[in-house]
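W.,

You were right to be curious about this one. When I first looked at the sequence I had no strong expectations either way, so I just let the prediction run and decided to look at it fresh. Below is the sequence, 354 residues in total, followed by the output.
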Amino acid sequence: MVAALAAAALLTAILPAAATGGTIWTTLPSMPTARAGVASAAAPCPPGQTGICVYTVGGENLAGQPLASAESYNRITNAWSTLPPMPTARSNAAAATAACPPGQTGTCLYVIGGVVISGESQTPQTVVQSYNPVTNAWSTVAPLRTARSDLAATAAPCSLGQTGMCIYAVGGVGAVGSLGSTESYNPISNTWSTVASMPTPRSGLGAAAAPCSPGQQNTCVYAVGGFDSTQTNVVQSYNPAANTWTPVASLPTPRSNMGTTATTCPPGQSGTCIYIVGGLYVTHLLASVQSYNPASNIWTDLPPMPTPRWQLGAVAMPCPTGVGGNCVYASGGADGSDVLATLEALDPPEHTKH
């Protein structure tokens, strides 16, 4: 947002340390449009392309103007494509991937909530729009029950007796401050439901789906870090099967407005881990990267990003051509003086446990 980006110009960056255990971050072609406060997710590539692509949508430019532009990165061609713009320009929205809404087939990208900025006025939104990679077109679907920006979203099994996969919208900023409320969207019925509230209201948090922590079964939604009166290291997991929240191991480094995703754990670990990339801590932009293993309830330090930044997107998908395994892709954000078009990918290397 305008004030946030202006304040960022005064921040001091925490410089990346040298990586150990092999390496690591790769700098890829920049996005066509520099932006911060992006919504980002991995979804099937647009028409004429194959595989999974990184999508970066909306956000704001350096002047604080909200953007509607949408772009996708194809790891096979190592190139970006410009897509039809979102119907509603906004920044600080969240994105997730799930089945397309009624009347459509396939997998769609959903962009949820966010803020529309007009002069000094910043208005949280209820709007939700989906992009269909097959038709290369946007649709407006059922709105959130609660207007919110700076929220987090991810897809996980539905709760409250529903079947299939739902999108969970968690926390954010509403009309009266940070939110703990959580909603789930069912693409089959095109409806939102209110589920159990997050115990710690916060905005600028991250969310990802991964196996539940020890003592629980199924897949859980993890709400990580964020901001209320200051940056927090709180991490809580929501179990859709039980409709309950549970605290888990805290972040080693409190932060807000970071990139968050889940993919294969680093070498030496098994299963699916949650990855936290960059963000803001008090007066510092972060380059640090940490992963959480639900099986061990332990956080791990990974090599820092080459570019410290906040208000960025992070998604997981197969690594660029020529590199095996899955990578974490970090796109856009702000570096303290400018908005960025930067795209960097982490192939998780050996690590240091906390």
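Here's what jumped out at me. The CA atoms of residues 246 and 305 lie 30 Å apart. And, maybe more interesting for your project: Residues 2-8 form the longest helix (7 residues).

Coffee later to discuss?

I.
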